[in-house]
Specification:
Layout (H helix, E strand, L loop, with lengths): L1 H6 L9 H4 L4 H11 L4 E2 L14 H17 L3 H9 L9 H12 L8 E5 H13 L5 E7 L3 H9 L3 E6 L4 H16 L3 E7 L13 H14 L2 E5 L15 H4 L5 E6 L10 E5 L3 E4 L2 E4 H10 L7 H13 L5 H25 L12 E2 L7 E5 L6 H11 L1 E2 L1 E2 L12 E5 L5 H20 L2
Parallel strand pairs: 1-13, 3-4, 3-5, 5-6, 6-7
Antiparallel strand pairs: 2-8, 7-8, 9-10, 11-12, 12-15, 14-15
Helix pairs in contact: 4-5, 4-13, 7-8, 7-12, 9-10, 14-16
Bound molecules: pyridoxal-5'-phosphate.
């Protein structure tokens, strides 16, 4: 029987929802990148490795160990041994992280309200698993959305539905309408997942008024707001906007602060802030304790050595990442500017008649820009452009749960050099010109 399964795998041995989920778009893009390694890729939102400074992280680890040994009156060897052991499920650097959240992000949280998770992806998994039941609860996400949340919900059979990207007052009304629609059906919108700062994939930033309106809606209809803040450090125009969590008077927000883009992704760290209490059998219980219970059965605990490295970084920098972020933000802003300059040059309507119906947004932060073109962007276009013009992009339709984005493509500018941006946009303009003029 086992032999048969190995020699002839059959789909009924795996979760059918893996296939109902739709296409493996990231797998497709990875394949294209592997097949055309000399192509300039605007596909993935990976951070720029020039800012990783991984060599300095051994010093951070050392700093953490020395500091811990001194504070706890232990030998450095014992502290190191402890780092090698299984550890607290909620994390081992919660005090340092609480100080960081207060200093840099104006978020007040007790160390016990914080879980240090294995990336935002684990925080999303823990949050949804702890809060939702499959029969009655619904998760709302903006459409288009970050596929990390939509695909997790779909594989695990949680009900998920869409709202428009929150860009004006009508999007807030659309959320209210969806909530009422589900109420009529006897269901409850339990979670609204949003990326207020430089949303992936649209780059949209939620206005302050809409942040307040959304918080008011959460209070009125008693849902939990998942605020995913992966890109908030990368603002290029105005100052940082206040996070939903820092404005949250009613304890409606669960805050996910991924460090993948700010520090580097292989740390696999996210700071999850859960300040709510819930009633279970008339007893008030910290929701963070229940999240920890779930986490215990997902990853047991987050690698202590990675936490110690980040803890050391915080200790060395007086609990603030601001000084470290300045250089990264400036570098990313230059890339954004280079991209805008190249688009203005190679898609100039005055000098290129075919560029008349091509437009793009001006991202005020984050890693992404959206280009609108007068044709349907398909998977075949991605392959053709990689093969002929040696440049790779992502069709926006990949990120929609419903229809949408058919005439748009996403350009990630985070992991390309300014030179590559110039060359890549020139090549992309040749591809788009051939599409437009051959229609
Ligand atoms: C919106 C959003 N959240 C979170 C992440 C990062 O998740 P993680 O912390 O698991 O690396 C990404 C990465 O692409 C993202 O776009």
């Amino acid at each position: 029987m086992i032999e048969k399964m190995i020699s002839q795998p059959s789909f009924d041995v795996v979760n059918p929802l893996l296939f109902a989920m739709g296409e493996d778009v990231m797998g497709f893009l990875n394949e294209v990148q592997l097949q055309y390694p000399d192509a300039i890729s605007f596909a993935s939102g990976r951070p720029d490795a020039n800012y990783f400074k991984i060599d300095q992280f051994s010093e951070c680890l050392d700093h953490f160990v020395k500091n811990n040994a001194r504070e706890k009156g232990l030998s450095e060897n014992i502290v190191l041994e402890n780092l090698g052991q299984y550890n607290r499920t909620k994390g081992i650097i919660n005090e340092e992280v609480a100080k960081y959240l207060s200093v840099d992000e104006a978020i007040k949280a007790n160390p016990e309200d914080i879980l240090i998770t294995v990336g935002a992806q684990e925080a999303i998994a823990i949050g949804i698993t702890t809060l939702c039941n499959r029969e009655n609860d619904v998760i709302l996400v903006e459409d288009p959305a970050y596929i990390g949340v939509t695909h997790f919900a779909k594989i695990n059979d949680y009900a998920i539905d869409t709202i428009p990207v929150i860009s004006d007052e009508s999007s807030i009304q659309a959320i209210e309408e969806k909530i009422l629609h589900y109420q009529e059906k006897g269901k409850k919108v339990k979670i609204v997942y949003v990326i207020p700062d430089f949303q992936n994939p649209t780059g949209n930033s939620m206005s302050l008024t809409n942040r307040h309106r959304l918080l008011e809606l959460a209070r009125l209809y008693d849902f939990v707001l998942f605020e995913d803040n992966a890109y908030g450090d990368f603002y290029y125009e105005k100052d940082k906007m206040p996070t939903l969590k820092s404005l949250d008077q009613n304890n409606s927000v669960i805050y996910l602060r991924s460090l993948s883009k700010t520090i580097y992704p292989s740390l696999r760290l996210c700071l999850m802030v859960v300040t709510q209490k819930v009633k279970v059998n008339e007893k008030s219980i910290a929701l963070s304790d229940l999240m920890a219970k779930t986490k215990g059965y997902v990853t047991v605990n987050t690698p202590s050595i990675m936490q110690a490295m980040f803890g050391g970084l915080l200790l060395k920098n007086a609990f603030s990442l601001e000084a470290l972020n300045t250089e990264k933000r400036a570098g990313m802003k230059e890339k954004r500017n280079q991209l805008l300059e190249s688009l203005n040059h190679f898609f100039n309507k005055e000098t290129h008649f075919w560029a008349e119906n091509i437009s793009w947004n001006l991202p005020a932060g984050g890693f992404f820009l959206i280009l609108k073109v007068p044709f349907r962007v398909t998977k075949q276009d991605v392959i053709a452009c990689a093969e002929t013009n040696k440049v790779i992009f992502t069709p926006m339709s990949f990120f929609y749960m419903n229809q949408g984005g058919e005439n748009e493509l996403r350009l990630a500018f985070s992991n390309v050099t300014e030179e590559e941006i110039k060359n890549g946009i020139e090549r992309l303009s040749e591809f788009i010109k051939s599409k437009v003029t051959n229609q």
